[in-house]
Amino acid sequence: MRETLIFGPAFQAGGGLATDPLAAVAALPDDAEICGCNGVCKGDILKSIAGGANTLEAVRAQTKASASCGTCSGLVEQVLAVTLGDGFEAGAAKPVCGCTDLTHEDVRPLIKSKALKSQPAVWQELGWKTPNGCHVCRPAINYYLLSDWPTEYADDPQSRYVNERNHANIQLDGTYSVVPRMWGGLTTPDELRAIADVAERYAIPTVKVTGGQRIDLLGVKKEDLPDVWRDLNAAGMVSGHAYAKGLRTVKTCVGTEHCHVATQDSMGLGVKLEKLLWGAWSPHKLKVAVSGCPRNCAEATCKDLGVVCVESGYEISVAGAAGMDVKETEPLAKVATEAEVLEYGAAFIQLYRENAKYLDRPYKWTAKVGMDWVREQVLGEASRKALYERFKVSQSVYQKDPWAELASKEEARFDPMAKLYTEAAE
């Protein structure tokens, strides 16, 4: 029977608390499970290392360890370090992909300094080994270009993952999940009727309330997506971008409008934040929350951007996590007005958009650059206002509803595979 590892600040080994993670990993038996997603034990990794796998990528390719959620990557690297000794450098910056020897940290400043404004320019000027990149580098380069040159670079849908291309999340059985946006977690009777009508009209089997205070329609057939979007649009609803590397939700509590202990209008501020931030493509997904008092019912202190309302104003904190990693937010600023919350929040997100490695959440990015530098950029009036203005410029280009754009276009429709096969045979 395999031993399942419990992750924490240190590893249990021999009944005691290990102060040296490598010693704890060395003490693990071969049947200890390292990668829970793919059921890979330590012995599997040792066999791959013995067979010549001396990097995280090589172990991943051979065993699938860290190939899913990635949380165990550090643990896999520790097994490598224990086994290979000084011959392995854990955590070293790696090339973007096999198409280049450059790292993400190399590519971002080169795109800016060389004013590279297209993917072909990147491939040519930065010496890519392949003529058109690959499925690994294209999404990253596409993001860096649209982030740095929002008014000059046209987003390339073919350089996005399948969920972003189809504007819905693909599910286990090949159907899709559709989540309309609910500003600050608020909805109306008309919106609820429209959701119910859509679920019945297109025989959508599952309707679920999400953790982000929205409603998820699960089991939508691909060919029905444009019609589902059109009908939800008709009720005034837009894409919730539940599939996107961008803003997902702004979670709120009921605030002073209903709660006797709330200090500020958290629902109203949450709606304003979401209407400002939605549609902003970013290195990874973003989750935001506004709690009406320090009781923190909206769980603002584990979000990418969190606001806790107090009697004297608003406490803004950033870089939290509550997924594979759990991390409390770090204080950014305390401000007196809603307008300041909007400006400081957008400035922080723009700083993240302009500087983070693709697929790094804010908490991973801030750990690399340091919160002192982040605070310096956001709290300095000149730099903050410049960040805020650049964010608004980007939003003027990219804050648009893909459902509304695609639902009415005949070429955007998805035909059933059976129909395509029939037409091909004819």
Question: What report would you give on this structure?
Answer:
- With 426 residues, the chain is α+β, with helices and mostly antiparallel strands.
- The chain has 17 helices and 16 strands.
- The strands form 5 sheets. It has a 5-stranded mixed β-sheet with strand order 10-11-12-13-16. Strands 6-7-9-8 form a 4-stranded antiparallel β-sheet. It has a 3-stranded mixed β-sheet with strand order 1-4-5.
- Helix 2 packs across helix 4 and helix 11 (266-277) packs parallel to helix 12 (338-355).
- The chain starts with a strand and ends with a helix.
- The relative contact order is 0.07.
- Residues 1-18 have low confidence and may be disordered.
SSE inventory with pairings:
Blueprint: E1 3-4, E2 12-13, E3 16-17, H1 21-27, E4 32-35, E5 40-41, H2 42-50, H3 56-63, H4 73-84, H5 104-113, H6 119-125, H7 137-148, H8 162-166, E6 169-170, E7 176-178, H9 189-201, E8 206-209, E9 215-220, H10 225-234, E10 247-252, H11 266-277, E11 286-291, E12 305-310, E13 313-318, E14 321-322, E15 326-327, E16 330-335, H12 338-355, H13 362-369, H14 371-379, H15 381-398, H16 402-407, H17 417-425
Helix pairs in contact: 1-4, 2-3, 2-4, 5-7, 11-12, 12-14, 12-15
* Record field, number of beta strands: 16
Sheet with the most strands: spatial strand order: 10-11-12-13-16
Looking at this structure, what is the CATH superfamily of the largest domain?
Sulfite Reductase Hemoprotein, domain 1
Mean residue pLDDT: 90
Helix/strand-derived category reads alpha+beta
Largest sheet: 5 strands, mixed
- At the first level of CATH, what is the class of the largest domain? Alpha Beta
Q: Indicate the CATH topology of the largest domain.
A: Sulfite Reductase Hemoprotein, domain 1
**What gross morphology would you assign?**
globular
What is the C-alpha radius of gyration, as a whole number of Å?
23 Å
Helix content: 40-55%
Estimate what percentage of residues fall within beta strands: 5-15%
- The CATH architecture of the largest domain is 2-Layer Sandwich
